[in-house]
């Protein structure tokens, strides 16, 4: 009986943390206004208003970005105030495979140049951040 319980529980955890819904073969970057931050477990969510492609002035799409758990984000230096509602940011993310607006958060670049990095332990995030490292080092050398 205990073995069966372990088998069931062992299957449930990875299923919850599946990243299969995100396209890790490419990243997308959008700019918009922070609509909402959901600072809750099991994952922090960032919501962003992005101007609708081909839309009229004032028309926006709402993008949703899954991020790491609250404790993981706190280890990355995040607080409830890292992103503020109404703030304009650029967000790089792995898009959803079904084409809906949003995906898995990689990083946000604030208007003042600060970078807020997502959960480095999520699949593909560290590899994407490493691609930026040479460019950042070149900028520091100036």
Descriptors:
5-stranded mixed barrel, disordered C terminus, single chain, globular, 3 helices, OB fold (Dihydrolipoamide Acetyltransferase, E2P), alpha+beta, about 140 residues
CATH topology: OB fold (Dihydrolipoamide Acetyltransferase, E2P)
Percent of residues in beta strands: 25-35%
Average of per-residue pLDDT values: 84
**Gyration radius, to the nearest Å?**
17 Å
Give the CATH H-level superfamily: Nucleic acid-binding proteins
Number of self-contained structural domains: 1
Number of strands: 6
Distance between the termini: 64 Å
Largest sheet: 5 strands, mixed, barrel
- Please report the first level of CATH classification, the CATH class: Mainly Beta
Task: Set out the fold topology.
Elements: H1 2-16, E1 28-38, E2 45-51, E3 60-66, H2 70-75, E4 88-95, E5 102-110, E6 115-117, H3 125-141
Parallel strand pairs: 3-5
Antiparallel strand pairs: 1-2, 1-4, 2-3, 4-5, 5-6
Walk me through what this model shows.
By secondary structure, the protein is α+β, with helices and mostly antiparallel strands. The chain has one domain: Beta Barrel (OB fold (Dihydrolipoamide Acetyltransferase, E2P)), CATH 2.40.50. The protein is 27% helix and 32% strand. The chain has a five-stranded mixed β-barrel. The longest helix has 17 residues, at 125-141.
């Amino acid at each position: 009986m205990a073995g069966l319980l372990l088998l069931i529980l062992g299957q449930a955890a990875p299923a919850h943390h599946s990243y299969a819904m995100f396209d890790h073969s490419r990243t997308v970057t959008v700019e918009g206004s922070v609509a909402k931050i959901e600072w809750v477990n099991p994952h922090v969510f960032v919501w962003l208003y992005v101007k609708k492609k081909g839309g009229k002035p004032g028309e926006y799409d709402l993008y949703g970005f899954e991020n790491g758990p609250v404790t993981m984000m706190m280890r990355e230096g995040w607080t409830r105030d890292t992103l503020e509602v109404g703030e304009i940011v650029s967000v790089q993310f792995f898009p959803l495979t079904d084409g809906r607006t949003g995906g898995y958060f990689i990083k946000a670049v604030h208007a003042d140049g600060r970078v807020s990095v997502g959960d480095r332990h999520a699949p593909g995030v560290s590899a994407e951040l490493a691609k930026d490292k040479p460019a950042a080092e070149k900028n520091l050398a100036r």
